[in-house]
Amino acid sequence: MNIKKFILLTAVLILFASCNSGDRGQLVGVKGKSWHPEKPYGMTLVPGGAFIMGKSDDDLAGVQDAPTKTATVRAFYMDETEITNSEYRQFVEWVRDSILRLKLAEMADLEGKTPGSGDIGEFAYKDADPEALNAYESYMQNTYGNEQRKINRDVDLIFDTADYPDELYAEVMDGMYLPLEESYNGQRTWDVKQFKFQYTYMDIQKAARNRNLKRSEVVIQQEVEVYPDTTAWIRDFAYSYNEPMHNDYFWHDAYGDYPVVGVSWKQAQAFCQWRTLYHNGYQKSKGSQPVNSYRLPSEAEWEYAARGGLQGASYPWGGPYTKNDRGCFMANFKPLRGDYAADQALYTVEADAYDPNDFNLYNMAGNVSEWVNGSYDPASYEYSSTINPNVNDPDNARKVVRGGSWKDVAYFLQVSSRDYEYADSARSYIGFRTVQDYMGTEVTKNAATN
């Protein structure tokens, strides 16, 4: 072997060895970033496990829609409380500000205004690498098609009319309020019909059942008005004076920690999409891996969580009584005919009122009923799977609500009782809470007790 061939062979061997450095030529898999589970703020981990789902005692109402069956669910995180007015307002204001900034940037672009002049030009677009866009900017780009234009978020929005920088800014802002002839008491009122959130998602169930469909055929786009229907306080109760709740409940700070109501099933779904977008925007800014999506719980997950590890119980605290040993009611509901205040509350109470169940979840019975990600079918328990059971038919507009509310009798507070409302309906007694899948399968209730 001449010297040139020897040197070439040695170089190849060195290169080959460097490509396999550390694995000795063995199949060791691709090494990713180290990962540790992180409990989302305000949530608690519900360990997976098996439970007896359905009515464990007599079905006094004779509905016969919840026969007992053994089911198993995987571990997941769940909001400790119902989503509050304050939390939902964060969503509403984010959508409002997103639309405002886009309109201001469009106006500045149309008029040729640029930063530095102290007018609407301060809100002009910025050029940006699309890979560097944050959650807000990606949302605006994908939703409104503003290509690679970056919204200027470095300058605060101005809401005081006396501080508007110029007439163009005033024109944009005035367009977001109702006309003067539609306002009263001298108050400027937002045109909340313009507060719309657009999002896309993949219908994985549809894609799995129809493998020949194109990807574009299973990517669904939705647009939802996000402001709660505060008129529900009036419409839900004929010949009743509830105007104070209509006027103040959602926006006033006095009710900030109370559960949001007047939110439809579709709006609850939109909130979940936004919360995922918002959280992953932060994750991206830190170079961290994205989190699992926030979503509504399945009917089985909700009931499993409500039971708090108790098998065969009627209520989250056990049962079969709605009072404790001191004679105090354990939840916010209507204990007596016409007497809504016997439990110390007329309408809703704070989301963390009363004692939590053994999974540290508050108000899984009473206060407000809760939307779940399931369609109501009286026979669904008969044919649903026994592992992570979930029946959500897109063509069935009747969506399940669970837990009972401040205006319900005790029957609807039972962890096994089922009820429904239409997906586009908003009620003064229906709210929601969200869940997030736990990454991994080793956390189970069974393992925790062995």
Automatic annotation (TrEMBL):
Q: Which UniProt keywords apply?
A: Lipoprotein, Signal
Keyword Transmembrane helix found: no
Taxonomic superkingdom = Bacteria
- Domain (Sulfatase-modifying factor enzyme-like) ranges: 42-435
* Keyword Lipoprotein attached: yes
Transmembrane stretches in the record are none
Instruction: Give the signal peptide, or none.
Output: 1-21
The protein depicted here goes by the name: Gliding motility lipoprotein GldK
Which species does the entry assign this protein to? Winogradskyella echinorum
Q: Taxonomic lineage of this organism?
A: Bacteria, Pseudomonadati, Bacteroidota, Flavobacteriia, Flavobacteriales
Instruction: State the gene name recorded for this protein.
Output: gldK
